[in-house]
Amino acid sequence: MLYYNFYGYEEFKARFGLEKRENGVAVRKNRILLAHLKNPVLLKYCREHDDYALLHIYDMAALQKRVVEAVIGSGKNDEELPYEVELIGKTYHSAKYRTDEAKGLCEDLDKSSVRYVNIERNRVFKMRAGKFMRELILETGIGKLLSPCVVNWIAGDVFTQQWCTYTHGKSPDMELHVNNDFGRIYDSNYCKGSFGSCMVDENRTSFYHDAVKAKAAYITDKTGLIVARAILFTDVTDQDGKKWRLLERQYSSEGDDVLKRLLVDKLIQEDYIDGYKVIGASCHEANAFVDVCGNSLSDRKFEIDCELELEDTLSYQDSFKWYSYNQNKAYNYENSGTSYNLDTTDLNLYGDDDEDDGEWDAYHQYYCSATICCYRNGREIWVDSENLDDFVWIESKNEYHHENDCVCCDNCGENLLKDNAEYSEVTEEHYCCKECMEKAENEFKRKNWYYSEYDEAWYENLDDITRINIWNDSEGVYEEKSIGIDTLDGLIENEDVWEFGEDVFDTVNPSTNLPYGYKLKKEINHEYTIIEEAV
Q1: Mean residue pLDDT across the chain
Q2: Which of 65, 1, 69 minimizes the C-alpha distance to 38?
Q3: Cβ within 8 Å of residue 25, ≥6 positions away
Q4: Are 59 and 282 in contact (CB under 8 A)?
Q5: Per-residue pLDDT band at 23 (split at 50, 70, 90)
Q6: Which helix (DSSP H) or strand (DSSP E) does residue 145 occupy?
Q7: Please, which pLDDT band fits residue 1 given cuts at 50, 70 and 90?
């Protein structure tokens, strides 16, 4: 642990050890962070520069903040990346792209894409937000050092959600509520779609009314349905006695992280919270809180007052799950004074539970006979094995992924993850590989673009092509060919062709410096004109 400042194996195990989920599956904690720290290329860079800032990271919030800052700084100091890309108040640098006055916002209000200017073609295009950020990251020196899973997480998860939230803005269709109506946020009749919560419709809300100091925080759409919600603990104390208002883990319609972030943003804007549970990776960690500026609070030890009798109703707790019956306190960290765990679906501290109805389908929100591991937004979700209509089998990964995270290769029909696909700016479709993309682009150009015979290349606009007369020596005639205007301008500038009026020739008669047959043609035309006038 020479370069990482871990206090022995026990701390390492606490941060990255295996933990067992409710479904019995063992998963490694903070696996993205672990992959980042194990990256040998990054370690070599840090040793060579005697700068270990990118290795002294201990939670996902710090990883996100530190990596983004490093990428921005790396691009700013790189003279080979002269163009500015301004997105959500941050300025990145690129050699291939820039943003215009729209600052990435698409004219068609596409919330999943970024508008940009392609430097080489000097034209406006749009690209999927995650793919665009990935391109920006990998252009920088620091970005090239990062492990692929970190790049994919920052670009495909974090930035994609931030961008969607940013484009939503202060939507008049979304209204924030902070009140004591806990029953509403746990009632499926008032919620839009599935929230992936085991406490929905379980009538456990008396816990929040009676045992703790909390508020229900949620946003509703224009129909009045709840699209994102969370519990706001209003009286939280850290180890230094400082008071906090902390927002618990957020839940949303179909697990949409954009809606979760929109809820958090509105609560910050209206000064309801001092910190919140991180969105996305590590949200299940009890200490994964950040302050409103995004700084990690993982070193803070939080507690809340929690008054429970043995028969009182419980509600599953994501963070304050270690309970001291004698102290009437619940903590977000394990300590010797705790006597019960509140991360349980038990009805009360006696351990009573509801009748076992089978396995819980977190996607469809019901019990079923058997579930299977699927992935949605890159995270595990257990789904009824007999109801996988919304999931696509990815052969290359041997996994089921949600249809919104997948695309089908427009050429060969293979299903693949959207973030792994090749996107064509020509056809505006996704492909499984460069070969499929090139084949599809060539076919698309053949049907929709214009061919320059001289350049042996395709042009998107007919206005980019003109004509040239090419001498066929064996036939003794000029053949009219298509040619790109830029190519022709270059030939004229280099005096490699001859202009006669609106006609251009690649070869002339060396004895007359005129195109072959040009004088004869003019004389014949002149005689014909005289005869025509006489008649």
Answers
A1: 85
A2: 1
A3: 373, 380
A4: yes
A5: low
A6: helix 141-145
A7: very low
Q: How far apart, in whole angstroms, are the C-alpha atoms of residue 233 and residue 249?
A: 11
Structure tokens at 477: 């005639």
Burial 18-39 (b: 16+ CB within 10 A, else e): eeeeeeeeeeebbebbbbbbeb
Backbone angles phi, psi at 77, to 5 degrees: -90, 5
| Amino acid at residue number 288 | A
Inter-residue contact 306 to 326 (CB < 8 Å) = no
DSSP state of 514: B
Q: What is the 3-state secondary structure (H, E, C) of 155-218?
A: HHHHHHHHHHHHHHCCCCCCEEEEECCHHHHCCHHHECCCCCCCCCCCCCCHHHHHCCCEEEEE
Q: Could you identify the residue written with the tokens 């068609």?
A: 108
Phi-psi category of residue 5: left, alpha or beta, with phi > 0 → left and psi -120 to 50 → alpha:
left
Angle made by CA atoms 237, 240, 245, in degrees to the nearest 5:
30
Work out the average pLDDT over 488-509.
86
HSE of 130, CA atoms in CB hemisphere, 13 A: 22
Neighbours of 518 (CB within 10 A): 18
pTM for this predicted structure: 0.51
Question: CB–CB of 193/253 below 8 Å?
Answer: yes
Structure tokens at 20: 């067992």
194 contact partners, CB below 8 Å, separation of at least 6: 253, 254, 255, 362, 363, 364, 365
d(CA 375, CA 25): 14
Instruction: Kindly state the tokens that stand for 189.
Output: 């009749």
Closest CA to 199 of 430, 360, 398, 392: 360
DSSP line for 17-85? -EEE-TTS-EEETTHHHHHHHT-HHHHHHHHHHT--TTT---SHHHHHHHHHHHHHHHHHT-TT--EEE
142, two tokens: 């620091």
Q: Answer for the pair 137, 154: CB distance below 8 angstroms, yes or no.
A: yes
Q: What one-character DSSP code corresponds to residue 421? A: S
